[in-house]
Amino acid sequence: xxxxxxxxxxxxxxxxxxxxxxxxxxxxxxxxxxxxxxxxxxxxxxxxxxxxxxxxxxxxxxxxxxxxxxxxxxxxxxxxxxxxxxxxxxxxxxxxxxxxxxxxxxxxxxxxxxxxxxxxxxxxxxxxxxxxxxxxxxxxxxxxxxxxxxxxxxxxxxxxxxxxxxxxxxxxxxxxxxxxxxxxxxxxxxxxxxxxxxxxxxxxxxxxxxxxxxxxxxxxxxxxxxxxxxxxxxxxxxxxxxxxxxxxxxxxxxxxxxxxxxxxxxxxxxxxxxxxxxxxxxxxxxxxxxxxxxxxxxxxxxxxxxxxxxxxxxxxxxxxxxxxxxxxxxxxxxxxxxxxxxxxxxxxxxxxxxxxxxxxxxxxxxxxxxxxxxxxxxxxxxxxxxxxxxxxx
Length: 393
Fold this sequence. Notes:
Elements: H1 7-23, H2 26-30, H3 44-56, H4 75-87, H5 96-109, H6 112-123, E1 129-132, E2 148-152, E3 155-166, E4 173-179, E5 190-196, E6 202-207, E7 216-227, E8 231-232, H7 238-248, H8 253-275, H9 281-310, H10 316-339, H11 355-362, H12 373-384
Parallel strand pairs: 1-4
Antiparallel strand pairs: 2-3, 3-7, 4-5, 5-8, 6-7
């Protein structure tokens, strides 16, 4: 794996850097670093306008095939874009669910009609999406979902509840898993449906997080409808579609995530130098180990992406979520250790948190959302290592 830019890649990096430098001005410059997990409420309208400016410049959906509105960018070019985007501290994107999850899913599993209808809207950031997978009794166990969908003439009618649905209060559409076959079939009998959010029969209730904000929600479907043509793949074959979507979730977007983690560590280190925490050998060792952990994460991600690009991706892809979630939770704990007693006091009334406190509190969710650590370990044990399957009722 060659980590140096080729001449063409170096030119592409300069193009990305120059475009961001020219356009991150005015209100967009004021929004630098805003948004992201735990902070999705920040400057939403400005970030939406920024996303649409990116679209006008041809910087959304880079890796999508040209025929579907993308640029057909190579894996190396996508990595470069994400690295430069994060280094510029550009506002966190609001259309990432559609671009990184649903779009690739429709390209792989959707009908020609679905691709014509939805992909241009995602590229232009005219429609926003959320993901309806988790349920109150089926968090990381997707095979246990109980939301049901039934055919009623030209429509599917959906009844049930989803939870932890990020950005549902902003989304125009939801792609969800619903049971269309008999109950008790687990993986069989599930279907993937595209459902409009702004209709009678869909109720969104915000869930207040430890940080005091609400970026994920409960969503209740009570007779909600969607056109029969909005079934992705075949009825009852939604498990295959869902697994494809989860595979796309571990893509190049993790690269800019790591640059954000590195910036957080740099700020923790700077605080340790200012407040004397760096004189503590235990904390100094913890900071050093965090730096090493970031390097391991970077090389692991690049190796995984190289395998994906060459069609040789192996079991290393299955460990990515487990690794970064555990690392980031530990980074939040390190931030509080370095802050010391001052970290226990809110910055302002009634509950104004500083960046270290937000990092500590929201990173507790990292090992839960997107598949909990326990579920990830079971998947690795059973599907990668070939160990005996866990006993199930």
